[in-house]
Amino acid sequence: PRMSSLPGVATTYELVKEGAGAEVTKGATVTVHATGVVKQTQKKFWSTKDPGQQPFTYQAGVGKVITGWDQGCLGMKLGEIRKLDIPANEGYGEAGFPAWGIPPGGGLLFEIEVLKIQ
């Protein structure tokens, strides 16, 4: 897959599906489907598509989510799907997130689909 770089961050992404129309901009309220996998173990730790889960809504570009996700989704268009490759220092860092099975220094792979931009 061809990975694209992002300005100012180490996170990279692969475009899975083109979107159209509105773009994710700083301060926008964005609703997404997201599936997260630990890079080292290939274990899924979270997905909005799992039974009982809902799409996830957050405010973009203002530090409400981990850096790699926050920066990696800027510029995405409605309906776009990206696979983000997020190094630990732009994810959960040296501490990891043991409750979710993310090891210390664990890299993350997130597939994000933009459902709504407000």
The N- to C-terminal Cα distance equals: 31 Å
Give the SSE order as H and E letters. EEEEEEHEEE
Beta-strand content? 35-45%
In angstroms, what is the radius of gyration?
A: 13 Å
Net shape: globular
Uncertain runs: none
Average pLDDT, to the nearest integer?
A: 97
- The assigned structural class equals mainly beta
Helix proportion range: under 10%
- Main sheet attributes: strand count, strand direction, barrel closure: 7 strands, antiparallel
How many runs of DSSP E, i.e. beta strands?
Answer: 9
Number of helices: 1
Descriptive notes:
- There is one protein chain.
- This protein is mainly beta.
- It contains one helix and nine strands; from the N terminus they run E-E-E-E-E-E-H-E-E-E.
- The chain has one helix at 67-72; strands at residues 4-5, 12-17, 20-23, 29-38, 44-47, 56-59, 77-78, 81-86, 108-117.
- The strands form two sheets. Strands 1, 2, 4, 5, 6, 8 and 9 form a seven-stranded antiparallel β-sheet that branches. A two-stranded antiparallel ribbon has the order 3-7.
- A hairpin with a 6-residue loop joins strand 1 and strand 2 (12-17).
- The radius of gyration is 13 Å and the shape is globular.
- The mean pLDDT is 97.
